[in-house]
Amino acid sequence: MQTLPALLAAGFLCAAPLSAYGHPHVFAEASLEVVVGAGGKVDSLGHVWRFDDLFSSTVLFEFDKNKDLKLDEDELRSVAETVHGSLAEFDYFQFVTHDGKEVKMRAPVHLVATFDDNMLTIMFESQPEQELKLDGKVDFGVYDPTFYTAIDFTEDELMMVQGLPAACTRAVIRPDPDEAIAQNQQTLTEAFFNDPMGTDMSKIFATRLEISCGGQG
Predict the structure, then answer these.
(1) What are the backbone angles phi and psi of residue 31, rounded to the nearest 5°?
(2) How far apart are CA 176 and CA 181, in angstroms?
(3) Residues 128 and 41 sit within 8 Å (Cβ to Cβ)
């Protein structure tokens, strides 16, 4: 039986050259909740990804060791642990910036996997490595740098903020692909010649939650 990384060597956990400029083959509907605590500091990000039927069926086939056509507790734990290890090098598909500068996130302690109505769902929580206070502009997003997985927030309400300070506003940004390419054309061209497989193009297309704060949050 294949492990999940082997299974997804042609899928969303792989940085294979062909996948970097291909079309998505795995689809997930996502939700994101930013939890803000005292003093306008970001406490955590809560992620939920619900995968498409085809990919969910593939995971069931690979991890259903007792062949009872469902994933029991031990099998789900195996799925979660495998995905946890596989996504580490991709920062768990999440990105955070503060006034345009990257914010490092701690790796989640663990992931939780469920399998209901023939649909695989992955859930996890992460925290900033350093204190992150909401002031200026802070962006939160989810994307697959290999372009193999399309992670979609189908409604703006699925990008949530708990404890948004009164001095801050929330907006969901959905970049237009043509405009995104035009605005980043020079950077993308230079990046392509420097490293054809490392342009990270999918990040500029990713839906993101933008929190803007006047003064201190």
Answers:
(1) -135, 150
(2) 9
(3) no
The C-alpha angle with vertex 153 and arms to 148 and 55, in degrees rounded to 5, equals 40
Torsion, Cα 55 61 65 68, to 10 degrees, reads: 110
Contact 212, 168 (CB under 8 A): yes
- CA atoms of 128 and 103, how far apart (whole Å): 7
| Nearest one of 136, 166, 144, 145 to 36, comparing CA atoms | 166
Read off the pLDDT of residues 29-76 as tens digits, 9 standing for 90 and up: 999 999 999 999 999 999 999 999 999 999 999 999 999 999 999 999
> By three-state DSSP, how is residue 207 classified?
coil
pTM over 0.85: no
